[in-house]
Amino acid sequence: MSQRFNGPRARRRRYELGLTVEQLADAIGASKSYVSQIENGAFDPGPARFAALVKALGIEDTQEMWTQEGDAA
Question: How many helices (H) and strands (E) does the chain have?
C-alpha cells in the first residue's frame, strides 16, 4: 500500500482554525484551486508545499497528514 496525503484531515484542521480556502492558499503561496484539489484527494502536495501546509495549519505531527491508500480519512 502506498501513502497518500490526508486531504480531508487538512480540511478539518482548516475549519478548526476558521480559515477559508483563500486564506490557506495565500498562506502557502498557492491557488484556491490547488488547495481544493489536495483537500479532495486529487493529488498529493510536493515536499515544499507539504511543509508550508503543515506550518500554516499548525500541525506538529506530520505523520497524521498521511494515510494508507484506501484507509478512511
Answer: 4, 2
Please report, to the nearest 10 degrees, the dihedral formed by the alpha carbons of residues 15, 50, 7, 24 taken in order: 30
Confidence check: pLDDT of 73 > 60? no
Full-model pTM: 0.85
Q: Give the pLDDT confidence score for residue 42 in this predicted structure.
A: 95
Q: Which residues of 31-68 are buried (b: 16+ CB within 10 A; e: fewer)?
A: eeebbeebbeeeebbeeebbebbbebbeeeeeeebebe
Q: What CATH architecture does domain 3-57 belong to?
A: Orthogonal Bundle (1.10)
Per-residue pLDDT at 27 = 97
